[in-house]
Design a protein that fits this description.
Shape: elongated
Mean pLDDT: 89
Number of strands: 4
Strand order of the largest sheet: 1-2
Helix content: 10-25%
Largest sheet: 2 strands, antiparallel
Order of helices and strands: HEEEE
Distance between the termini: 55 Å
Low-confidence stretches: none
Number of helices: 1
């Protein structure tokens, strides 16, 4: 069971709590090997490399 509120929160108070629930665009960087956009500190999905080394063999 959850807590029952004794008083109604106003719309302004409700919306002020939701003010920081915004989405943010993912940070993207260029791959150092192939130049494709990728998420930093992850293996590149195009060439399979991380830190200029091939980690995953990508079959093309």
């Amino acid at each position: 069971m959850s807590i029952c509120p004794k008083n109604k929160h106003s719309k302004a108070r409700r919306d002020s709590h939701r003010a920081h629930w915004k989405m943010s665009a993912p940070a993207l960087v260029k791959c150092s090997k192939c130049g494709a956009l990728m998420v930093p500190h992850r293996v590149c999905k195009k060439c399979g490399s991380y830190n200029k080394r091939e980690i995953i063999a990508v079959g093309e």
